[in-house]
Amino acid sequence: MRGIPRTRPKGLELRESLTEEEFQQRAGRDQGGRDRAENEETFLRNEWGIRTFGFSSLVVEPADGQIPELTDFGKARAAEPRGSTFGAGPFNAFDDFSLYDRCISRGIFGSVLPSIYGNGIVIGQSPDAISITYEMIHDTRIIQLSDSPPLDGAIPQYLGSARGYWEGDTLVVTSAGFMDNRTGVGAGPPHSDQLKLTERYTRVDPEMIEYRVTIEDPVIFTAPFTYRVMITTQPNYQVYEYSCHEGNGAVGHSLSGERAYERQVAEAIANGEPVPPRANGMSIYRPPSENAEIFDINSGE
């Protein structure tokens, strides 16, 4: 699903599917991405699926495939700085870091929508519950298949309180009671504690499940909207343990880096020199600087 844009591109507003020619172009781009990942990329390897889909966007409702406007509060929240090691800081306390940095959660949408790697999803079923485990950050949701009420809203959860039931062959999951935190819904700013989700899981053939989720958050968005994602099996795919906490230096290194930067600034000012520019977390993904020493880590030397 990585080759599908989140919202409907201009000119395709009322078309859910590509033409045959458009599909062939996307299939070519997907194949090129797979080839680069397998034969060229090293440090940061992109993960690609084995299928190409002809959907024009991930958003299927409203009919034009666009995400509704933000409320005034949503716009204000969107303008707030978001703490993350991918940002520019400053880093002075735990709250300056995202839940992702701290290995706590990526939220439901960080886990379901296509990502750079670690897209595995394991669904387990028993007579009275469904478990859903996401590969990256290894969140697991337990969805009770019962008429029991969800948890009281006074006990908010990172992934909400979920209850499921069957409509024919479709599993319907409703969730509420979310924390007002820094996880998002794949668009716009982080959601509020008024977020409500309605997820629909429908097996369309032995190897694919259609996943649709309707997002309602009147605090952030002016209207509901719906994503569609196809969950597919992949031959020989292995879900690896995502040992995020073990050896994670994101918080410690960022805090020590911030203190080092403060010393650099103080020294520059004391010496009457220009203040050094602040680096950001994305700088490690850039090409090496000119005259940098480069060696092959696979050479064994």
Based on the structure, what is the oligomeric state of the protein chains?
A: single chain
Number of domains: 2
Low-confidence parts, pLDDT < 50 over ≥5 residues? none
Strand content: 15-25%
Overall average residue pLDDT: 89
Could you give the order of the helices and strands? HEHHEEEEEEEEH
Shape: globular
As laid out across the biggest beta sheet, the strand order is 1-9-8-7-6-5
Gyration radius from CA atoms, angstroms: 22 Å
The DSSP helix count reads 4
Q: Helix proportion of residues, in percent?
A: 10-25%
Global structural class: alpha+beta
Could you explain how this protein is built, in words?
The chain folds into two domains: 1-67, no CATH class; 70-81 and 112-252, Lipocalin, CATH 2.40.128. Helix content is 18%, strand content 20%. The chain contains four helices and nine strands. It has helices at 20-39, 72-79, 107-112, 250-270; strands at 59-61, 121-126, 129-134, 140-144, 161-167, 170-176, 196-205, 208-216, 225-232. The two termini are 39 Å apart. The model has no long low-confidence stretch (mean pLDDT 89).
